[in-house]
Amino acid sequence: MHGQRGWTPAWAKAVPRERYRVVIVGGGGHGLATAFYLASVHGITDVLVLEKGPIGIGNVGRNTTIIRSNYFHPENIRFYDFSLKLWERLERSLNFNAMVSQRGTLNLFHTEAQRDLFTRRANQMRLLGVDAEAVSRATVKRLVPLVDLDNGRYPVLGGFLQRRGGTVRHDAVAWGYARAASAAGVDIVEHCEVTGLRRQGTRVTGVETARGFIAAETVCLAVAGYSSVLAAMGGLTLPIETHVLQAFVSEPVKPLLDVVLTYGAGHFYVSQSDKGGLVFGGHIDGYNTYAQRGTLPMAEEVAAAAITLLPGLARLRVLRQWGGVMDMTMDGSPIISKTPLSGLILNGGWCYGGFKAIPAGGFTTAHLIAQGTPHPLAAHLGLERFAAGRTVDERGAGPFPYLH
Amino acid sequence: MLRIACPWCGERDETEFRYRGDASRRRPEADAAQDTFSAYVYERDNCCDWHTEWWLHVGGCRKLLKIVRHTLTHEIRSVSGAEAPDSPVRQADP
Amino acid sequence: MPGPARIAQGLLTDASSSVGFRFDGRMLRGLAGDTLASALLANGVRLVGRSFKYHRPRGIVTAGPEEPCALVDVLGPRGREPNRPATTLALHEGLVAESQNRWPSLTFDVLAFNDLLGRFLPAGFYYKTFMAPGWAWERVYEPLIRRAAGLGRLEPIVPAHADPAETVHDHADVLVVGAGAAGLAAADHLGACGLRVILAEQDVVAGGGTLLDERWRSWRERLCAALAARPAVRTLTGTTVLGAYGHGVFGALEVLPGAAAARFGVRERLRVIRARRTLLATGALERLIAFPGNDLPGVMLAGAALAYLRRYGVAAGRRPAFFLNNDEAYESVFALTAAGIECAGVIDPRSSSRAAERTRTLGIPMHVGAVVGGVAGRREVRAVSIDELDGRRRFMLATDTLLVSGGHTPATALASQLGATLEWQGSLAAFTPDLASGAGRVAGAAHGVFGLAAAARDGAAVARALAADLGRGADASDIPEPPPDSAVTPLRELWEVRAPGKPGKAFVDLQNDVTAADVRLACREGYEHLEHMKRFTTHGMATDQGRIAGLLGSAVLAEARGVPLSEVGVLRPRPFAQPVPFAALAGGEVREHYRPKRRLPLHDWHESAGATFVSTGLWLRPLVYSRQGGWPAVLDEARAVRERVGITDVSTLGKIDVQGADAARFLDFIYANTFATLPVGRSRYGIMLREDGMAFDDGTTSRLGPQHFLVTTTTANSVAVLEHMEFHLQSVFPELDVLLTDVGDQWAQFAIAGPNAREVVSAVVSGIDLGTAAFPFMSAGAATIAGAPGRIFRISFSGELAYEVAVPAKQALPAWSALLAAGERFGIRAYGLDALNTLRIEKGHLTTAELNGNTTAGDLGLQRLIKKQGDFVGRTLAQRPGLTAPERLQLVGIRPVERTRRLRNGMQLVAPQAREASLGYVTSSTPSVEFDGWVGLALLSGGRERHGQRLIGLSPLHNEATEVQVLSPHMLDPENNRVRA
């Protein structure tokens, strides 16, 4: 250690040029990761990342920091597990400690029907070589001594554990990718809002911004909840609704929860940060909104689930609540895709699972931009799947974003 | 939290209602093309602006309401029954 | 008077009522009315905790909920509760509190070593260090950091019946937040106008700043009496408004004082307040100045010292010095002097001021044009270093206490949440909120009107405007003339004293141990936006939400960036205004009340018959009539049905009554098959799709009259199907004459199934001929059942000859009992959900395990039911290539080739030669009563073309690989002879 001197700004504050090969709209996790992989994997450094505010304070900076790859659909398992593998070596890739902590994700089940669904999911994961294990009630209690297994309403019957799941320090993800992308030659310009997409016929030729027109061979949208707003600038309508998802943090206390825990009888998931606060979240509020704020009924609902499952939390205090706006798709799965406009690539529709997907999302989006064809791991995430009836619907909830 | 003035029941908390999505989209005629149906089912304007939307008052009169609400400020401009004509929602803010 | 520093009679303390308590094992005494902080100060206890990161000694800084440092663990009947601010913790007899973040003891703390390492542990140090070697972060560094993290320890004792908590729903015309001079005057005016007012005050008493000025006593008492006399005004003390949630909705936390808590059995109430208008009179908070050593115990805000004196009669120090940049804060100097405390001196960066003049006349040493450049002392203040701004002199002043004021910051959090923009006020060196009047109004110090009399007048004026908004005219309120404010000299903006070359950390966030140097480091490394600086340093993210120094961090950042503070701004204030216990947020709907329990009309019977219940959604359903687990009891029940007769309670099925001239037309639109052709008195199995073409729900629908149908839905989808029907009726077909009524709760329904079902049912039913000729399979009709009017349907889920009888819910027990009695001679058995499942799997009938939202009618083998003509929900999109592809997962039956092997739900099906590629999975399985061994249903790629194939059922979770044979899902009686018998 060396007294922390000599560090210069983590990412250069660039001045935009008039023309780039690739302009990425959105300086969040996916936008910055896409820029990094364009530079580091494909050698494309003529890249601009535009962010309307400061980088990294959208969803990448306001989520519950969970990483995992326990999905139903084989395509999704492969995609998210690739992400998990990139997380596992992220620190070396970026030379920045994002504090990847594989402390395990534990999903509880409370009915035999839930057990069956988890069994199916875990078996599918194991077929693909991804870690998943079933754990007994006794093991649940050992892993999380605070759990009330019988909890009066929906007793815990057991759990499913993915040991490689865990948490990552979310801000550091944005900063680490920004720093590495910047070092590789990518321009990052903050406080520069995109106000329009310039088109020639069905081709996108660049972006209108607060600092003038910037031409690009490829424009990539990576703006999460604002995907529809940006797409509308090019005349596109997307299979997306924007909903708010809330998160909460408690006051910091000495360690009492060592895994990421998900309740199966209500919408509640929780982990404890390195700083000691419990970070937890619930379900989306369920109606279109761009307001990044929390609501009271959801706070009440999540707290009720929390002390039903973990009654010892009753006297712990909740410090803050906040909301992020999610781009909920019509099947609950993301979109990494070309669009009806040539030169326009969409990385979006992350619903509330975008954080864990940042490395894979950036990697496969960079591939799509650089190669012009979908990366095999993201081939199922094209926009065309909706009209074709090949949706990837993990919950089977159908085209109702408020149910995913 | 939204407070919705149901024309039949009065002003109530949002928790009494079930959101049913964008009310500006109308089910195509029976003989419409697959793509037309696909657009109806999957595509949304999802504007950051005034938005006409359905809410079903499941905890009250069970009427389907048509509400014009701003998706950023949550201000509600009107609440009416389902049969009300579409109001122009894309005009400038009042 | 308990405690050596108790020098006067406090406004809130009762000198005649001594209270014993323990702090870190030491037995001490305070007074009723004390907070823990005031009692500790009265006893001369100044070191109360260790800081988060550096484990530096910390004392009491404030006298309110904004306290950053004096957090303690409280040991009570519910175990150890961490992080309670001593400044708001009401003292009570037997209170046991412990300091936090120290080991082994507060005065000797091992991790204080971190402080010496401080050079290596600045903000953001985690991100750049602790990486090499690659595995070391998770195995070595992170566990170390986690052990050191956190403030207090949570060690709950959870009683068998959790402490109740309550949620209260309030409505008002106007919510007034803050009962200081402005809020009291406003509430009185609004109340006099006849408006319903809620006046919420976080303090345990109303009064705000007027409590600290003896001249205001009579004004305050008169107003409080006037408010108490107005029934439409409710004053809620101990009530913190937590956040503004839009549409006039606010959350508030009411903390009940000890006596009330004991009386009501609740410690807190969450109040959900709905108000037509809001008046924010939230006051202003005194702020800290950054200078080296500004965290040492003995450094306190000046206003806090005034509060301790006035409210509790406690002197914050024996010989305090003051570091002030504004005249308002001098009130502490004057009050402590008047109380007989010798003041060591006052340091003021201004060259002159009215208050400084008055100080001089009191004979107190006045050091104008000077700042505090450092603090001497190891565990508490011994002296301060005074630096003259012109650089001429630097000298030490001996003192035990340094009382600081850097000015006052209006409390704007709620206003911001209501959408206020913040405007920089140079004269106050603070932001004030500008709020569109429709959302609410701000009064008093909260929008920069300082001085109690000015605030009172402002409160009244804003209330008048607000009353006019609400159509109320002049009032009859009679607010007494307030005592005049003293004239003040404007403050001098001062955020940080930088003393180059002098050691010591200058803190901007005391709880999170963020120094001014950390802020500058963040800026140098590019984290120069306030949001980035906050996240990099954790400034403002502690339990106190940076309330006394949030603006200070912005100011240091602004200076580092070389831009005006107004350009940097302040952090966006998010709820909650004060940390809220989970219990208070959750209210009463926890544990056994987490979700309502829906009980069947026969719940008590099922229970007395020994049923094990299972929660399916909200319902409690009998799973099996046995308290032992395992298959034998289930299979006994199922075998009774196959061999004799059984009865099961199917009342949870959704039942929707559909009436009207267009009822048939509407059902033909909702269902993928046809109902217009269904004759009266007949039932038909129906399948409905979602508009995207996927199967949604199934069930039987019966025609009870020409314009009268009864739809049954699955239990799981009963709510969703009704909403789906209502939505389409009201949005797509509002012109149709159809009425939908949920009759699910009105009818109890039982299935009687088995070869002897007809004899059993005939014995209790009259008014209907149940012979196959008169009442064939899929018939429906009215009948008298055990003497009550009911309905009877000849439908079967089990695959046996079966009837379902429906009776009004209150007739459930007589009908059920009569059926049991009639079945006795056949050995009738009640059967539960598990046996029902066994029976339907053998028959190939569906539940939500197969109707899982990702299957089409075709996948489920129901293609032949889909009508070819006419529009219906899902018709067009069901024809898409993705929904008709031959490789889709299709429903099949499966059996293990080796009959002794078991199946498992969730088993993956693979080809023997390609075991990594899943071809499908088992949805449902059971040991069979009809066949040898296990049977199951599966969804299998191209399954209908695979009947007869042998595949492997893999469950890696259980290390199982079982060879299975694929067959038709209709394993039992495919010709339907039994149901037609």
Rounded to the nearest angstrom, the radius of gyration of chain C is 38 Å
The gross shape of chain A turns out to be: globular
Poorly predicted ranges of chain A (pLDDT <50, ≥5 residues)?
A: 1-5
Count of DSSP-assigned helices of chain C: 26
How far the N terminus sits from the C terminus of chain C, by CA atoms, comes to 94 Å
Q: What fraction of the residues of chain A are assigned to beta strands by DSSP?
A: 25-35%
Class of secondary structure makeup of chain C: alpha+beta
Q: How much is the average pLDDT of chain A?
A: 95
How many extended strands of chain A?
18
Shape of chain C: elongated
Low-confidence stretches of chain C: none
Calculate the terminal CA-CA distance of chain A, rounded to whole Å.
47 Å
Sketch the major β-sheet of chain A: 8 strands, mixed
Q: Tell me, rounded to a whole number, the average pLDDT of chain C.
A: 94
Number of strands of chain C: 51
Major β-sheet of chain C, in short?
Answer: 7 strands, mixed
Oligomerization state = heterotrimer
What percentage of residues of chain A falls in helices of 4 or more residues? Answer: 25-40%
State the helicity of chain C in percent bands: 10-25%
Radius of gyration of chain A: 21 Å
Keyword list:
heterotrimer, B: 94 residues, mainly beta, four-stranded antiparallel sheet, two-stranded antiparallel ribbon, C: 981 residues, alpha+beta, seven-stranded mixed sheet, 51 strands, 23% helix, 28% strand
How would you portray this structure in words?
By secondary structure, chain A is of the alpha/beta class. In chain A, strands 1, 2, 8, 9, 10, 11, 17 and 18 form an eight-stranded mixed sheet that branches. Chain A has an eight-stranded mixed sheet with strand order 5-6-4-13-14-15-12-16. In chain A, strands 3-7 form a two-stranded antiparallel ribbon. The longest helix of chain A is centred in the N-terminal third of the chain and has 16 residues. Chain A is globular and about 65 Å long. The N terminus of chain A is likely disordered. Chain B contains one helix and six strands. In chain B, the strands form two sheets. Chain B has a four-stranded antiparallel sheet, with no helix packed on it. In chain B, strands 1-2 form a two-stranded antiparallel sheet. With 981 residues, chain C is of the alpha+beta class. Chain C is 23% helix and 28% strand. Chain C has 26 helices and 51 strands. In chain C, strands 9, 10, 11, 12, 13, 14 and 27 form a seven-stranded mixed sheet that branches. Chain C has a seven-stranded mixed sheet with strand order 41-42-43-44-40-34-45. In chain C, helix 8 runs parallel beside helix 9 and helix 13 packs across helix 14. The longest helix of chain C is centred in the middle third of the chain and has 18 residues. The mean pLDDT of chain C is 94. At the A-C interface, helix 4, helix 6, helix 8, strand 16 and helix 10 of A face strand 6, helix 3, helix 4, helix 14 and strand 30 of C. Strand 16 of chain A pairs antiparallel with strand 30 of chain C, so a sheet runs across the interface.
